[in-house]
């Protein structure tokens, strides 16, 4: 059996191609935003190396609190135990925190300060060295997969041994155009037809997350099967899928740019009535003004699609809306978003009152301009 040994940085497509060729690595450290694709890779690894029916004997998984408390001795014991029926033993560890120094620092900051911090630093360094030695000793009879939220690539020695023994791969979100084609392909496989604008709207409503897209597509497909329908248009997506949060943020920005304070507050009430969290609305509004500044600067739809990873219809609307405000006014409102966030996080203002004040101040500033 040939095993992949290339140490260059790879992504989902390259790893999937290796597994299709029947090749697997002894070590995978996977991280990034797209948990859907990470789960797909693990499923492919499981199908490749485990014998049918042997999963209870030849695989073990640790996740959450269990993974964060996993001792290296226990992990070594699992690695050195040979498979019973399969060609390799599969060990999946989710959220160990071994590869993110930021998490360790935040944990340390929450604890009382020590009069002598040097032993803690030495202990952390010693633990990392133990992990490096363990990874160097992974036998050919094992396949170890770590799934992490973040990986600190400044840990040079650790990164080097990962790339020597296996692969470190960031699995980020796919481009919106690819996601739209994926949605269209899934619909075709089930005998349904989906309009291009409907597919784009669905991708945008799910904020480019394949995990959320998969859930929403299955919901729509079940409805179509029950209702005996075969066609998906934008109206059906609006009826069945998630609320169009970005669309409402566009409308809210239109109201702000025209100085229509009452309309902006009405849209806020609408979003809150749809159970959208205040924190999410604030984040989306700040991100929207950042994207408007980019639209003003780039000035081209294709550049926005490439740089911001948005659908073409979103890029076009950003360009149109960016014409309504000067760059100075957009930067001012973006600064207000930052100040509002700071006021909430420091306990100066409740979330909802802070957001309402932001809308009133921004609309007043735009009207005076």
Structure notes:
With 369 residues, the protein is α/β, with parallel strands linked by helices. The chain folds into 3 domains: 159 residues, 3-Layer(aba) Sandwich (Rossmann fold); 65 residues, Helicase, Ruva Protein, domain 3 (Orthogonal Bundle); 124 residues, Zinc Finger, Delta Prime, domain 3. 63% of the residues lie in helices and 9% in strands. It contains 19 helices and 7 strands. Strands 2-3-4-1-5 form a 5-stranded parallel β-sheet, with helices on both faces. Helix 9 packs parallel to helix 11, helix 10 runs parallel beside helix 12 and helix 15 packs across helix 16. The relative contact order is 0.09.
Produce the secondary structure layout.
Blueprint lengths: L11 H9 L6 E5 L3 H15 L5 H4 E5 H5 L3 H9 L8 E6 L6 H10 L7 H19 L5 E7 L7 H10 E5 L5 H14 L3 E2 L1 H10 L4 H18 L3 E2 L1 H7 L4 H13 L3 H13 L4 H21 L2 H8 L3 H11 L4 H19 L5 H18 L1
Parallel strand pairs: 1-4, 1-5, 2-3, 3-4, 6-7
Helix pairs in contact: 1-2, 7-8, 9-10, 9-11, 10-12, 13-14, 13-15, 14-19, 15-16, 15-17, 15-18, 16-17, 18-19
């Amino acid at each position: 059996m040939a095993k992949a040994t290339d140490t260059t940085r790879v992504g989902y497509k390259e790893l999937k191609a290796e597994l299709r060729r029947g090749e697997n690595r002894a070590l995978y450290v996977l991280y990034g935003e797209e948990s859907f694709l990470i789960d797909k890779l693990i499923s492919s690894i499981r199908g490749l190396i485990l014998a049918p029916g042997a999963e209870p004997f030849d695989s073990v998984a640790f996740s959450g609190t269990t993974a964060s408390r996993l001792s290296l001795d226990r992990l070594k014991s699992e690695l050195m135990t040979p498979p019973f029926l399969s060609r390799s033993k599969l060990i999946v560890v989710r959220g160990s925190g071994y590869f993110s120094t930021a998490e360790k620092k935040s944990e340390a900051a929450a604890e009382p300060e020590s009069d002598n911090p040097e032993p803690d630093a030495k202990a952390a360094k010693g633990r990392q060295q133990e992990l490096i030695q363990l990874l160097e000793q992974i036998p050919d009879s094992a396949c170890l997969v770590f799934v992490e939220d973040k990986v600190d690539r400044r840990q040079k020695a650790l990164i080097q041994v990962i790339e020597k023994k296996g692969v470190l791969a960031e699995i980020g979100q796919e481009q919106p155009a690819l996601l739209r084609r994926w949605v269209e392909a899934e619909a075709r496989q089930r005998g349904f037809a989906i309009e291009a604008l409907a597919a784009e709207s669905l991708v945008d409503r799910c904020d480019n997350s394949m995990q959320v897209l998969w859930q929403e597509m299955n919901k729509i497909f079940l409805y179509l099967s029950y209702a005996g329908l075969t066609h998906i248009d934008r109206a059906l997506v609006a009826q069945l899928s998630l609320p169009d949060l970005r669309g409402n943020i566009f409308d809210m920005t239109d109201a702000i740019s025209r100085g229509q304070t009452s309309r902006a507050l009405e849209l806020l009430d609408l979003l809150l009535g749809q159970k959208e969290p205040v924190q999410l609305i604030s984040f989306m509004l700040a991100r929207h003004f950042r994207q408007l500044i980019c639209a003003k600067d780039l000035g081209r739809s294709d550049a926005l699609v490439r740089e911001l990873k948005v659908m073409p219809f979103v890029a076009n609307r950003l360009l149109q809306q960016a014409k309504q405000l000067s760059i100075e006014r957009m930067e001012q409102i973006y600064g207000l978003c930052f100040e509002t966030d700071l006021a909430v996080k420091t306990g100066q203002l409740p979330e909802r009152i802070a957001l309402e004040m932001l809308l009133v101040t921004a609309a007043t500033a735009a009207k005076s301009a």
